[in-house]
Design a protein that fits this description.
With 459 residues, the chain is an alpha+beta fold. It contains 17 helices and 15 strands. A hairpin with a 5-residue loop joins β13 and β14. α2 crosses α8 and α16 crosses α17. It starts with 10 loop residues before the first strand and ends with a helix. InterPro entries: DUF674. This is DUF674 family protein.
């Protein structure tokens, strides 16, 4: 199968709709569409956010705080980072399925293949055996690692489908349950909704990269994302549910990480209990930027046990988890790629509280990737303070900017109160989940607990 990097690639999708209600009952999809839909689970959040900003329909609520967090990292001063290449690696995380996704008929990820740069000094190369992903990094000898090795993995195909077998077809419900295509499944769906066959009609729509991203954004917010995609003029129904923070299944090393906490100082307006801003140190900012490297499948499965605030994403993840290997998913290895995606390079910050599946090694030929971290962190530890807005914009703390913000909000200094909050994995998960659908992530995740403590202890 040839690579499909063209933005013009389209997949035809048949949908069964109710003629009068303007509602999608289900879609009948071939392996190409289901492959693409399943592949979303392997994408890091940084990639989903970047693609959503580029190709979506401008929905302002989906991924709201993650989008501003992403932009904050784009604008973040490199002087606070451990190395020049740190920002590139934080903005461009990859999972081990990257090359496999390039075989998809419709690959939504337009990320360019990696480049491999080494030191032009052959003597140095012989001893240090390191490579970089960018050409502006200095080698230990002082030279720029600028030798382009022009390495590119081929994308020759196999027998058809990538994750699911070729020539198989599936039923995709309006809330993204994916099931094998059988007559009893479709008939039961129509019966459950109380519709008659005469009320329904078949339509065909063309699905490209933009449509897939619109579908993903809608799935994070609404109960019926396929209806939203097909009928934009229909008022969407909110699909958020209360996420359940279950107990994570952690290994020994992960349990040690899980015990870590960091402090966040929240400033509230005393008279209204409204969030104003937060003050954080490097460890929390490093952790926060780490949200962007988390693959969607890891977020839904390992971190949230299949119970996020998005019912549709939960349904999609459960569909993959419940599919038989060999019959509907080609191999256990491919199934694991979808529900337990693995980051391709092993350099994760020590401030990353969440347990992520990371490749044990990542190499190019005889070379190993240069570690951009200092003391296993992406941000320098200089005691710098940072200011965070409610939608996770991160900037270096400035007393002048704080006073200017309070003046703009017309909040007198006497009406400001501060609360220290300990952030562990549970609080981190709440912030992460809120960032998927809200532009008030810190308020949604932390304010309730603060106000409850104020009421309980009278502080």
């Amino acid at each position: 199968m040839a690579t499909t990097t063209s933005k013009e690639v389209k997949i035809s999708l048949k949908v069964m709709v109710h003629k009068e209600k303007n509602k999608v009952i289900f879609a009948e999809a071939d392996s190409s569409f289901v492959d693409t839909l399943f592949s979303i689970m392997t994408l890091p959040m940084a990639t989903i956010v970047r693609l959503s900003k580029k190709y979506s329909d401008g929905n302002s609520k989906a991924l709201a705080s993650l989008k501003t967090l992403h932009q904050g990292l784009v604008d973040f001063p490199t002087s606070y980072l451990s190395a020049e290449e740190s920002k590139f690696m934080m903005l461009n995380p990859r999972t081990s399925s990257y090359d496999l996704r390039r075989k998809l008929k419709l690959n939504v990820d337009d990320t360019e293949p990696m480049k491999f740069f080494t030191c032009p000094n052959n003597y140095c190369n012989y001893y240090c055996k390191q490579f970089s992903l960018v050409n502006f990094v200095k080698c230990g000898c002082g030279n720029l690692m600028s030798r382009d090795n022009n390495y590119n993995v081929g994308v020759s195909g196999d027998d058809g489908g990538v994750f699911v077998p070729n020539l198989t077809t599936f039923i995709v419900t309006d809330d993204l349950c994916v099931k094998p295509n059988t007559s009893d499944v479709s008939i039961q769906l129509i019966r459950d909704l109380g519709f008659a066959a005469c009320q329904l009609e078949e339509r065909s729509i063309d699905i490209g990269r933009k449509e897939i991203l619109i579908l993903v954004n809608a799935a994070l917010l609404y109960k019926y994302p396929l209806t939203y995609l097909v009928f934009h003029n229909v008022q969407p129904i909110e699909g958020s549910v209360s996420p359940k923070l279950g107990t994570l299944n952690l290994t020994g090393n992960e349990k040690d990480t899980n015990l870590k906490t960091m402090m966040l100082k929240l400033s509230l307006q005393k008279s209204t209990s409204k969030f104003l801003f937060a003050e954080a140190e490097e460890d929390f900012v490093d952790f926060l930027f780490g949200f962007l490297e988390i693959p969607l499948g890891t977020l839904i499965g390992k971190l949230m046990n299949g119970s996020t605030s998005s019912m549709c994403m939960n349904n999609l993840f459960a569909s993959i988890s419940n599919m038989d290997v060999g019959r509907w998913i080609k191999s256990q290895h491919l199934k694991d790629m979808l529900i337990q995606p693995m980051l391709e390079w092993k350099y994760v910050s020590a401030n990353q509280l969440f347990p992520l599946n990371v490749s044990k090694s990542f190499s190019y030929s005889i070379y190993t990737l240069k570690d951009p971290r200092v003391e296993q962190r992406f941000l320098k530890s200089h005691g710098t303070k940072f200011m965070l807005t409610d939608d996770l914009v991160v900037t270096p703390l400035s007393s002048i900017s704080v006073i200017a913000m309070l003046n703009k909000l017309k909040v007198p200094l006497i009406d400001v109160e501060q609360h220290a909050v300990s952030i562990g994995i549970e609080q981190g998960l709440k912030i992460l989940m809120a960032s998927l659908k809200s532009n008030t992530a810190l308020t949604d995740a932390l304010l309730g607990e603060i106000l409850e403590n104020k009421k309980r202890y009278g502080v």
